[in-house]
Amino acid sequence: MPMPAYVRFIINPTSGTKSRIDVADRIEQLLNHSKYKHEVVYTDYAGHAPKLAKEAADKGYDMVVAVGGDGTVNEVARGLLYSETALGVLPKGSGNGLARHLKIPMGLDAAIKTLNNGHIITIDSCSINDHPFFTTAGIGFDAYISSVFAGNKKRGLKTYVELVMKEVMNYKHMPVKAKINDNAFETDCYVMAFANAAQYGNNAYIAPLADIEDGLLDVCLVRKLDLVKALHLSYCMLTKQLANADSAEYFKTTHVKVNTDTPIMYHADGEFIGEATEFDVHINPLSLRVLVPAGMD
Ligand SMILES: Nc1ncnc2c1ncn2[C@@H]1O[C@H](COP(=O)(O)OP(=O)(O)OP(=O)(O)O)[C@@H](O)[C@H]1O
After folding, report:
1. What is the ipTM metric for this complex?
2. Which residue's alpha carbon is at the smallest distance from atom 6 of ligand 1?
3. Quick one: 111 and 140 in the same domain?
4. N or C: which end of the chain has fewer CB within 10 A?
């Protein structure tokens, strides 16, 4: 990056649980000002961040830093795709899947210092029915949970876990037709998760083998679920063993197609999108520049 590099911080004031920390003030205090000239802007509404990010990319800013959870990261990154402008992340959500995958510290001060010492890599992104995603997308149960969570006033990990526990046995698998790696098959689908990064967030590893620079999409399919399987899956997610678990099937591919007769819910980076009967999911190799901590390649 040139010296000084021009940086726009985009803060989602609604993300994360309530905190009294003044993020703009911490940035002012800890950012290396001989390296960066910066400005701070705030989102006014959902869907504002892609415009603010694209505007910065069009003006030739060197980096745009998303301050928020994976929803904000998604919106900012969407505005930067295929541009020279790098994404930076100050994690402020409850899951922070992309930040965790990239080994960005969860603490605000440490994450700001990472911006001072980090370097840029180029990562893959993915799309589900033309919605870009950078961490995970999915159809079935995980999308259903994102839809209920979206309407929930309370946020945070505890609320999320309570919700999953309450709903996991009520949700029913659906029959789908899928095509992965030219192999077409019919299957029941409780959840089909598509992963660019290894985890949903909170160290729940839905795709432990995911490499964000390999040009491949990792797919995890759970056909049906009962209580024993649910407990086993949770254990495997938290211990990074899902790729070899009996309760799930794991694929690496570049492109997935899914069809259903009955509409099924889908999400991208944890944000509920809607329902559809056809899904086209693919990888966009090396499409986003990202600043990562020193030592991460
Ligand atoms: N000013 C705003 N007012 C209302 N919604 C906003 C605003 N700015 C952004 N959003 C929306 O907030 C959504 C959630 O943001 P984000 O994921 O960053 O936080 P979070 O939900 O608290 O984090 P997590 O997903 O980790 O729980 C985003 O998808 C975005 O569309």
Report:
1. 0.96
2. 46
3. no
4. C
